[in-house]
Amino acid sequence: MTAHALVIGGGIIGLSTCFEFQDAGFEVTLIDPDPISGATHHAGGMLAPTAEVQYQQQALVPLMKESAQLYPDLIRRVTQYTDLPTGYRTEGTLLIGADRADAQHLTELIDYIKAEELDIEALTTRQARQLEPALSPRITKAAAIDGDHQLDPRLFARALFDAVLARGAQHVRDTVTTVTTIAESATHQAVTLNSGAQFEVDSSDVIILAAGLGAAKITGWFEGEHPLQLRPVYGDVLRVRVPESLQPLTTRVIRGFVEDRPIYVIPRADGTVTIGATSREDQPHPRTSAIHDLLRDAIRVVPGLEETEFLEATCGARPGTPDDLPYLGQVRRSLIVSTGYFRHGILLAALGARTAVQLATGQQTSPAIAPCDPFRHATSTLNV
Ligand SMILES: Cc1cc2nc3c(=O)[nH]c(=O)nc-3n(C[C@H](O)[C@H](O)[C@H](O)COP(=O)(O)OP(=O)(O)OC[C@H]3O[C@@H](n4cnc5c(N)ncnc54)[C@H](O)[C@@H]3O)c2cc1C
């Protein structure tokens, strides 16, 4: 009998997980009331293990590196099952500084990146402007990261969704409330939905809890306080369209610092540009001052953005954890947790999805996931 994977959550993590389970021969059911409506809908889509390196977060580096290496093959396999575009682009990333203090910051960051054995090439500002003539002549520092790529998360998630449906996945439009062990059989679990419907899962099947921030509301599988300490970290993000006469404004992702504020400018194949992103924990709506700051900083780095058509400002909630690492692990034989991907869920989706299959099928997983134990912040225990 074919084993069954029941995936809770249809953001980038749940959808890529569905795809990998299908590749491993599982029948897949996806439960989500509104797929691609969470963080994935708002994300920039940088696949940037190098430019996104953060100080004091060494445990993230191997996860990011490994997942970036898995991406080309994931894209290749997904596009065998769908004609929808993914927005995947491999032209690379330029890291830039806007003023003298930003140049100093970048010099230190480049040293740190090299110490982490990631590839980065310092450029003169003139070399950077030869590569991307739309960059401001006033930039103070630049470096090239050819291995940092990008995709359009909305497009890629839709392509994944299309691919998993084409391969026979069942989609249930409902919200999961609890995952419980069935009392008379310690090996069987029940997934209960808002509508009252229930799925029974036996020990040869697997449930994957991939509901982003929503995972913190799914109860029943632990005793005591919720083990997943998820919190929303909001990010404002903007989209503009470049007039045809100026296209392409840039071909690489421009990642930089303007008076110490981070900014990115991501060019898409359809002539639009994504500008992001803030990071704040106050309220979930696009904030006027954030929109102002992002536009001002982006225009300072790429002045031609002034000529673009403004399309949208949105605000998404990153599923944050206390140590910025995901919750990724098998909490019982047929229950896997895969959430809390915070700032890097688009990049880490390839590794997260592959790892879930490896856990479910008893294969060796990457040593990089060792610090991601879903119970590492818990005062609670597993409900058996
Ligand atoms: C502004 C911004 C910019 C970002 N930029 C980048 C970037 O450039 N690169 C990068 O790698 N990452 C980036 N991220 C982070 C990335 O978007 C997230 O880490 C990633 O999207 C998380 O994916 P997810 O599938 O876990 O969650 P989500 O995309 O939030 O999806 C969760 C899904 O679960 C469903 N759900 C919730 N509760 C339930 C339930 N009880 N039952 C059933 N379904 C449920 C929801 O409907 C939703 O569809 C960014 C995030 C933001 C907000």
Describe the structure.
By secondary structure, this protein is α+β, with helices and mostly antiparallel strands. It folds into two domains: 4-45 and 155-229 and 322-382, FAD/NAD(P)-binding domain; 93-146 and 231-320, D-Amino Acid Oxidase, subunit A, domain 2 (D-Amino Acid Oxidase, Chain A, domain 2). It contains eight helices and 21 strands. It has helices at 12-23, 39-42, 60-78, 100-115, 125-131, 153-166, 288-301, 345-360, and strands spanning 4-8, 27-31, 46-47, 93-97, 121-123, 141-145, 149-150, 170-172, 176-181, 189-193, 198-201, 206-209, 222-223, 231-241, 253-258, 261-267, 272-276, 309-320, 327-332, 335-339, 381-382. The strands form five sheets. It has an eight-stranded mixed sheet with strand order 5-6-4-15-16-17-14-18. Helix 1 (12-23) packs parallel to helix 6 and helix 3 packs across helix 8 (345-360). The longest helix is centred in the first third of the chain and has 19 residues, at 60-78. It is elongated. Bound molecules: flavin-adenine dinucleotide (FAD). Flavin-adenine dinucleotide (FAD) is lined by residues 8-14, 31-35, 37-40, 42-46, 175-176, 210-212, 214, 217-218, 235, 237, 276-277, 316, 318-319, 339, 341-347. Its EC number is 1.4.3.19. Residues 5-358 form the FAD dependent oxidoreductase domain. GO terms for molecular function: flavin adenine dinucleotide binding; glycine oxidase activity. It is an enzyme of class 1 (oxidoreductase). Pathway: Cofactor biosynthesis; thiamine diphosphate biosynthesis.
